[in-house]
Amino acid sequence: MIIMEGFPYNCNKSRAKKPEFILKTGAYSILSRIIMCIRFKIPIHLANLMSALGEPYISADESPMELTVRAIIVGIILGVLMTAANAYLGLYAGMTVSASIPAAVMSMIILRTLFDDVTILENNAVQTMASAGESLAAGVIFTVPALLVLGMWQEIQFLETFIIALIGGLLGTMFTIALRRLFIVEEALPYPEGVACREVLVAGEEGGEGALAILYALGIGAIYGFMVKGFNVTHHTVESSVNFLSTKLYAGMDLSIALLSVGYIVGIRIASFIFLGGVIGFGLLVPIYGLINGWPEASNGVEAFYMVWSSQIRYVGVGAMVVGGVYTLWSMKNTIFTGLSKAFEKNDEVEFEVVRTEQDLPLRKVLMVCGILVFATFIFYAIALKSVILALAGALFLAVVSFFFAAVAGYIAGVVGSSNSPVSGMTIATLLFTVALVWVVGDLFLGLSTGSLMYATLLIAAIVASSAAIAGDVMQDLKTGHMVGATPWKQQIAEIIGVVTGAIVIGPTLKLLHDAFRISRTACELDPLPGDPGCKNALFAPQAELIGAIVEGAFGGNLNLQMVLLGAVIAVVLIRLSMPVMSVAIGIYLPLGLSVPIMLGGVISYIALRSAHLRIDGTLDGEPSVAATDAAKEVESRGVLIGAGFIAGESIMGVFVAILIVMKINLPELLGIGALGNLLSLAFFAWFVGIFIWLATRALPEGGNLLTDAVAVVRNAITRGFQSLMPKR
Fold first, then answer.
1. Which of 208, 114, 135 has the alpha carbon at shortest distance from 475?
2. Which positions ≥6 away from 344 have C-beta within 8 Å?
3. Which phi and psi angles does 59 have, rounded to 5°?
């Protein structure tokens, strides 16, 4: 191995014996290094050469402050907030957003307000800790609440949740640390979100107006969330149903600027497919089922819609998501196999010198910690499951599958990004493998009861899912650190601190939300809140409901098989039509009202980006120019920052309101505040949507009017839509 200005090149081991092959930082230019390798016939990996062309922002020679006490304190605080906010958002809408960029911006604001000598590496350490807690929350909320859905827990168990989150998070982190140099340095995978976070950190270091934008958005989102959820000034949803041709039709919308922001961030394509799923579920399948089988007795048409959806149609979403998850992994089989083969490559080349920017935690210690974690898992399973044999099988299964999914998630995130990484698909695949293991060991060999089999499946799957969820995010953070010039072992310690913080926070957060709202309608129906007999305020927790339904169907035989098969058929049709099946499946599984603001956010994103094209090129015909594309990227980046702030503000306020509810503090009752009607509720929501649009489009080029731009963009989209439907000549 030859070290050249901090970038290792794989060269022939036999040729790397003399000290002069070690070219230290600043000794030679890139060209001279290439000549040196050619002269001595040392092969150069092209990926490593391309990596070397972009030097880190802070060179290996420098040693600025990095993992300082103040960075750790701010990182822990932001980690607590981001973990709680993403837990709420994930249980509310079934999706989470990356916390790296908002955490980086908030870190810059906090540290630079308090101190004058803050470094970019300190900000990087803070965003690393904050995003670790957020990604850990995503893994836990997909699985642990399923224990509530199946009635195995009546409330969140702090100790068990902490152990699941800690072991899963640390295993995913340790395996990812072992793969860092391979994926980031040797293979030089792009990691798009890691690159984007690097740009935010550098912009903040060099001074940019985007730093305050997210702070404004955070405050506005918090104000909206507190007014709607704390004071109940407006309705949470505006919905109605009408009788039509012997059946009923539904129209409704969830008034959430967090969901609006999610739609802006994911873009028009994904938002439209989620909305399509909602239309299929609520707009078609529920009315058809009601027409054929009759409507249940309910106080109103909307309640009847929800009763049919919860008892029948959501299982269509279950079938679609199972098929979609398996297909997503299958479609990425080449990427997965490549990632695994790279992970198992033997690398026994000698390193003469390792510069600061390539110093990982010692691999032997990392593997030792992995062994300790696997043993701790065995002890945990043995105590919880009361079966040494099943605990041993589960621990060994965990070790193999966790490394498998850590490598898969880390590699896929490097190719397509964390947001596009099929975490739901990997969770479903993990669950199916776990069901098979527990059925063979627990049922055929040990003859355990059905309840014990379901409990064992969920405990094993929960740790693996947490490990897979965090792996891609950790690798994105390490990519950001690689580009800004962070010291890897210090950033890896920051990851560990973030995981421990998230593991401590996630249990109390889940308990708080469950006590205040109930996590999932199923759990609410098993144990309703005194003030919410109809479970209208229950968090949907779609992934937890899905996992609970799969486990119950596998061992209890209570799965609504007809509807699951219908969902599988719909998924196959979507696959044949080359549509993103998981997005549509999530839309089917969620009520239509949640999909509407997501779709609205996607439409706003599309209009804003196309307006940038129009203002630069003067036309919407043909491909946009390079200048127009760059202008659209600026608008998109600002909108993502604003959206992230709105999401964090409303979600954090949702957790705060849950605290008030648990403390029996009823603000509307204390202050005598009544809710506005549907029209005024919509007007209140529209006002904040207008603020979002105004803030998000401030980066548009000068020389246009947003209203006329929007009319032109919509007209162009309609024209192109009609043209695409016309037969080709």
1. 135
2. none
3. -70, 165
CA dihedral 201, 206, 210, 214 (to 10 degrees): 50
| Pick from 541, 583, 550: nearest CA to 142 | 541
Identity of the amino acid at 630: D
Say how many C-beta atoms besides its own lie within 10 A of residue 329's C-beta: 18
Cα of first residue to Cα of last residue in the chain, in angstroms, is 59
Distances (CA, A) of 532 to 35, 151, 521, 670: 74, 19, 11, 19
Q: Which residue bears the tokens 């702070």?
A: 215
Q: Label the pairing between strands 2-4 and 7-9.
A: antiparallel
The tens digit of pLDDT for each residue in 575-597 reads 888 887 877 887 887 788 888 99
Over the stretch 507-527, which tens digit does the pLDDT of each residue have?
999 998 888 888 888 888 888
Instruction: Note the Cα 646 to chain centre separation in Å.
Output: 16
Residue reference for tokens 């016309």: 726
d(CA 588, CA 564): 12
For the question of whether the overall pTM of this predicted structure is more than 0.85, the answer is no
Token duo for residue 241:
């149903």
Angle at 121 between CA 695 and CA 645, to 5 degrees: 20
Q: Are 552 and 454 in contact (CB under 8 A)?
A: yes
pLDDT tens, 696-722?
A: 888 888 877 888 888 888 888 888 877
Query: Cα Rg for the chain, rounded, in angstroms?
Result: 26
State the Cα–Cα distance between residues 244 and 241, nearest whole angstrom.
9
Cα gap 462→637, rounded to integer Å: 34
User: 471 with 172: CB under 8 angstroms?
Assistant: yes
pLDDT tens digits for range 338-377: 655 655 554 444 444 578 888 888 888 888 898 999 999 9
Neighbouring C-beta atoms of residue 533, cutoff 10 Å:
9
Most distant CA atoms of the chain, gap in Å: 86
Q: Which of 268, 221, 228 is nearest to 601 (CA)?
A: 268
Contact 393, 325 (CB under 8 A): no
Buried b (16+ CB within 10 A) or exposed e, 639-654: bbbbbbbbbbbbbbbb
Q: Are 688 and 241 in contact (CB under 8 A)?
A: no
For residue 69, with 0-12 CB atoms within 10 Å meaning exposed, 13-18 middle and 19 or more buried, which class applies? Answer: exposed
Residue 71, token pair as written in the block = 């960075």
539 forms beta bridges with 519
Locate 98 and state its tokens.
């990356």
d(CA 110, CA 72): 13
* Domain positions in the chain: 2-53
* Residue 532: pLDDT over 80: no
**Distance in angstroms (rounded) separating the CA atoms of residues 617 and 627:** 8
At 446, list the tokens: 């040990």
Element holding 89 (H helix, E strand) = helix 69-93
CA–centroid distance for 133 within its chain: 11
CA distance linking residue 573 with residue 135, whole number of Å: 32
Please state the φ and ψ torsions of residue 541, each to the nearest 5 degrees.
45, 60
Average pLDDT, the chain: 79
Q: Which of 216, 302, 170 is nearest to 688 (CA)?
A: 216
Query: Per mean pLDDT, which range of 106-115, 396-405, 418-427 is the poorest?
Result: 418-427
> Which amino acid would we find at residue 641?
L
Q: Of 134, 151, 147, 149, give the one whose Cα is nearest residue 90.
A: 134
Q: Quick one: pLDDT at residue 508?
A: 92
Task: State the amino acid at position 481 in one-letter form.
Answer: G
CA 678 to CA 56: how far, in whole Å? Answer: 54
Q: At a CB cut-off of 8 Å and minimum separation 6, what does 64 contact?
A: 58, 119, 120, 121
